[in-house]
Amino acid sequence: EADIYQTPRYLVIGTGKKITLECSQTMGHDKMYWYQQDPGMELHLIHYSYGVNSTEKGDLSSESTVSRIRTEHFPLTLESARPSHTSQYLCASTGTSGGVGTDTQYFGPGTRLTVL
Amino acid sequence: GDSVTQMEGPVTLSEEAFLTINCTYTATGYPSLFWYVQYPGEGLQLLLKATKADDKGSNKGFEATYRKETTSFHLEKGSVQVSDSAVYFCALSDRGNQGGKLIFGQGTELSVKP
To answer: Which of A3, A81, B29, B31 fits a 20 to 30 Å CA distance from B55?
Structure first.
């Protein structure tokens, strides 16, 4: 059973506000990821981290930023929210098992963000 | 680059019908293959996986066989239930990918009617 948590689950906020979406995992996983999910369901990788103090941009450009100060925590921040940021944000993590590249990602329940 | 293509949805079936969701992939290495399921309002859950050619992954009545010759990993279930209604994602992880990143298909929505 995966232990990865996201808060808040739902957030409705006005344009221009700063927000932080929280993601925590208790599995000691070194790699963590943030995805943005379209209303049409497709998943886009926006950030990932290989470990503490490591952050990389994903395949889809995003105005959000992330940090990785502790292994278990990978928050995502939007400095100034806009309606175009309205989406579902999913956090995931994975740890090495059975060799390089054969990792299973475990997902949190997601945060549904609406920017008015 | 590596990619995953799934059949388009939505797929609508009656309860107890046979399900197939097609998935094909393109990869330069020897990927591991996954099926994830997303129920309404939730995150993704791993449904099954296969790590090498001819492996069959199975879970909760769902099965998928890693076919290297046809670069496919089709998801099947013999008798679907209303509770199987969800979005299904096919994904691959290249063994050479040290970042552990997954490449997802676009998702296939399944709706099962009583």
So the answer is: A3
Token duo for residue B35: 């099926």
Q: Does A94 touch chain B (CB under 8 A)?
A: yes
Q: How long, in residues, is chain A? A: 116
Token pair in block for residue A95: 């740890």
B1 contacts: CB under 8 Å, gap ≥ 6: none
Mean pLDDT within A15-33: 94
Nearest-angstrom CA–CA distance, B93 and B95: 6
Non-local CB neighbours of A109 within 8 Å, separated by 6+ positions: A5, A6, A9, B42, B43
Say yes or no for a CB contact (<8 Å) between B32 and A90: no
Give the type of residue at A69: I
Smallest Cα distance from A27 to chain B, Å: 16
pLDDT digits (tens, 9 = 90+) for A26-79: 988 899 999 999 877 889 999 999 999 999 998 888 899 999 999 999 999 999
- Tell me which DSSP letter residue B54 carries: T
Does the CB of B10 have a partner CB in chain A at under 8 Å?
A: no
Q: Supply B110's token pair.
A: 């399944």
Q: Hey, is the C-beta of A90 within 8 angstroms of any chain B C-beta?
A: yes
